[in-house]
Structure prediction request, 188 residues.
Amino acid sequence: MYEIVFNERLIIVETNVSLFSPKGADKGTLSMIKYACFSEEDKVLDLGCGTGIVSLAACSYGVKASCITMTDVDPIACEVALLNMKANGFEGANVVISDGLNEVSEKGFTIILSNPPYHTDFKIAKAFIEKGFNRLEVGGRMLMVTKRLDWYKNKFIAIFGGVKIHQEGDYFVFEAQKRTTQYAKAKK
Prediction:
């Protein structure tokens, strides 16, 4: 368990040794949250939710829990994330056990956030970016944080047509907006 403050609200985060960053909030994830700029009207997809830290932040900044979908391939992560939401007074989030977006049927998200496993091959990130683009509404944004620059920059540009890159220490936060219903370039 650890504590963190979002928008002057103390958040208690239960965790599990099997989950990503079990001793405290990951610096990369916190960097991504910093650039999210949540609004009360957002419909949020927390892609690879882990303990639910992104969703907890979103709710702390006014997003209704009922407008949040949290997904992770790990059933323990989904269970812990849901418990954290309820323990902090955020009821009604949709939690889906899913390999990426395979089991997520919703569309029309205004913001998708992800800290993907970037120490492996790019297969997972590729699917997150391509399928995430298709789940965003036009005007919606995707934010992703990694410690790698070139591949992610090129992939975001190929799919979204452009990307803002924010650097925070060793981390790169990629922020792209969906401007049309078609990928910017053909899939490679």
User: Anything to note?
Assistant: The two ends are 42 Å apart (CA to CA). The mean pLDDT is 94.
